[in-house]
From TrEMBL:
Keyword match Signal: yes
GO cellular component, one term: extracellular space
Domain of life: Eukaryota
Keyword Signal: yes
Record domain Fibrinogen C-terminal: where: 133-358
Protein name per its UniProtKB record: Fibrinogen C-terminal domain-containing protein
Annotated signal sequence range: 1-24
Length: 358
């Protein structure tokens, strides 16, 4: 009798362990602790049922039986099981976080993409500059957009939110070579970049003929990351010939300084030719347009005679990338002040491009 009793007990405890094992396996198959919410737990999710459970596994098993249950919260201190209608989407939320409560959600609960993202193979495909698992935030710049989501190799208009910026900005990105922000593009002899301060401040866009990013956007983009500024001149169409100048550690001041050029280091090795370090002499200068001449040496009228807007210092500059393209494009320099040039080159390009990599 005694033997029989302990045999029965043994069998029962084996059966119990067996059932526990199955429950545990089912639990891990069906539930997940989302990686954005492992160490803290939100309980402001609406629970439709609260009951006592011996473990989170038992709590989840109850949820498992119910289609309308998408997640469980389990308070370990008093073994309370909450069955929730909803589930967390992309963060732990702003609700009360309790360290004694764990949270699990059903793996197959439908993922919802935010900001017009679409679900493809259970991944959110985002648009317009949104990134993240759920398209929940804007990219900080084109490089981040490229590494996170956008890799079509094309030019596109995106919304970016640089760290610390008070608002988002529209930026034309080239989603290739790591992602670039287009600062300037000038590609026709009929269009002039001799424009007002307000236009240089806000930016202008006549894609694909001409575009300028806007000074505030340029400031925010170059503020928080080490940025390279690349300036490229196309000499002629066929075969295409380019002159490329790469500046590292490009930084400008904010509007209070009139977007003073703070730093720019010419990298000869990454440039295609040995050019004059034009920006070196301009460090410390504010940005100027014809109607807002911030040259420290007054009365020279650099933007007026150079026909563009740039950082000018004293005797203007040894380069004029925002000048006019109608003076013999693709041919020899004509030596007028308002043509596009970069010393010591004696030819006029047909196109100027400028971009930021960060
Ligand atoms: C999503 O699409 C709607 C309808 O086209 C549009 O009104 C809305 O601005 C879009 N939202 C975003 C974040 O792009
Ligand atoms: C520009 O930056 C300086 C120093 O960080 C700050 O004091 C000033 O308020 C800023 N100006 C604007 C317009 O944001
Ligand atoms: C570039 O050219 C100048 C003038 O010819 C020369 O003094 C300088 O050493 C050159 N720099 C490099 C990096 O080749
Ligand atoms: C630039 O525009 C201003 C205002 O229209 C004008 O006075 C100036 O002559 C122009 N400069 C060039 C080089 O075209
Ligand atoms: C351009 O300049 C080069 C020398 O710098 C000269 O040989 C050539 O004839 C010039 N071309 C024209 C069309 O003037």
């Amino acid at each position: 009798m005694l033997l029989g009793n302990s045999l029965l007990l043994n069998l029962l405890s084996l059966l119990y362990l067996y059932v526990q094992n199955i429950l545990c396996e089912q639990f891990h198959e069906e539930f997940i602790r989302p990686d954005f919410c492992t160490d803290k737990v939100l309980v402001s999710l609406e629970s439709y049922l609260t009951q006592e459970s011996t473990s989170v596994i038992q709590c989840a098993a109850r949820c498992s039986l119910d289609n309308k249950c998408l997640s469980v919260s389990y308070r370990e201190t008093d073994k309370t099981c909450f069955l929730n209608f909803g589930r967390l989407a992309y963060d732990c939320g702003n609700g009360v976080t309790l360290t004694d409560t764990v949270y699990y959600q059903k793996k197959d609960s439908v993922k919802e993409c935010m900001n017009n993202g679409t679900l493809v193979n259970n991944d959110c495909v985002c648009y317009g500059g949104y990134v993240g698992t759920y398209c929940e935030r804007l990219m900080t710049d084109c490089s981040e957009g490229f590494s996170e989501m956008y890799k079509d190799g094309k030019f596109g208009l995106y919304e970016v939110l640089p760290p610390g910026a008070p608002r988002s900005f529209k930026v034309i990105c080239r989603m290739k070579w790591g992602g670039r922000s287009m600062i300037l593009r000038h590609f026709t002899h009929t269009y002039t970049l001799n424009r007002t301060w307000v236009q240089y401040l806000d930016g202008f866009d006549h894609w694909p003929v001409a575009t300028w990013i806007g000074l505030d956007t340029l400031y925010w983009l170059s503020r928080s990351k080490t940025s390279d500024l690349t300036i490229e001149f196309q000499k002629k169409h066929l075969p295409p010939e380019f002159l490329r100048i790469v500046y590292e550690k490009f930084k400008i001041g904010n509007s209070s300084t009139n977007y003073q050029l703070l730093s720019a280091q010419l990298n000869y090795a990454r440039s295609t030719v040995n050019v004059t370090d034009c920006l070196f002499g301009l460090i410390g200068s504010a940005f100027s347009s014809y109607d807002m001449d911030n040259n420290r040496v007054p009365g020279l009228g650099c933007p007026l005679t150079y026909g563009g807007a740039w950082w000018y210092n004293g005797a203007c500059a040894q380069c004029n990338p925002t000048g006019n393209l109608y003076h013999n494009p693709g041919g020899n320099r004509t030596w007028v002040n308002d043509e596009v040039f970069w010393e010591p080159f004696d030819w006029t390009p047909i196109r100027v491009s400028m971009w930021l990599n960060n």
